[in-house]
Fold:
Amino acid sequence: MSSAEHQPSPLDSPAPHAGSPCPGPDVVTRLRAAGCVFAEDEAELLAAEACSPAELTALVDRRVAGLPLEQVLGWAEFCGLRIALEPGVFVPRRRTEFLVRRAVALAPPRPVAVDLCCGSGAVGAALGALLPVAELHAADVDPAAVRCARRNLPAGTVHHGDLFAALPTALRGRIDLLAANVPYVPTGDVPLLPPEARIHEPLVALDGGADGLAVLRRVAAAAPRWLAPGGRLLVETTERQAPSAVAAFTTAGLRPEVTTCENLGATVITGTRPDGWSARSRP
Ligand SMILES: C[S@@+](CC[C@H](N)C(=O)[O-])C[C@H]1O[C@@H](n2cnc3c(N)ncnc32)[C@H](O)[C@@H]1O
Structure:
């Protein structure tokens, strides 16, 4: 068990509850025995969430049983924000902060922004915090994710449904930033994921079909009709998937660009709707 990829920093943790118990060495020992790489840090974080020794034991029990740390804590840190998280909802990954950075760098003044496949709404919340958005929408097919995103996006509108079918038609042709961190794990690789993801995150959040790009292709194909002229679609992929994702963007009539961040191990494909695009100019 390792939360190395999205380990919240104890520096970002809240002040402990007034009655927070001190995590004893037994807590650290249990976490370490269960395979937690950052057992001391996790013990501090769990203790800060607990109001009593009994509550701390219950939290440690859930972590030892294999739940992702963030689902046990009830929050994940993302772009310096505390994102509320419920069991069964995808844990936002640190590498996705690169997608947010790209979107912020490319944003026009007062953009209309959409977080499609929003999960907890972490990407939308970060965009809303970093940009003076004119409108903020988010959507997901999973009711648990939609519930969670509504908590994290009080100033946005969160819709429920399949990709663009969830969005109000009034958004057609008006979206400046369309962030879509779609599921992109190839079906055959899902069994190879760490148990935290495989067991405690929903399959619909992970499985991207045979080559991992099935949802991405659907999003790219429909995106030009929803983007404003010059508007941008941003997705995350692996480096290996990038050429196929670029091909999907080009086929859809989007101008693709690939950017990577070595530090975060992130690859983001940006697709710009050309000014002259129309449904008839589609290749
Ligand atoms: C990889 S997770 C990303 C969640 C969030 N954007 C993030 O970065 O933390 C993918 C999300 O896509 C959603 N999803 C999968 N297929 C979908 C579809 N057809 N329509 C809408 N949402 C979908 C899943 O429910 C999941 O919340």
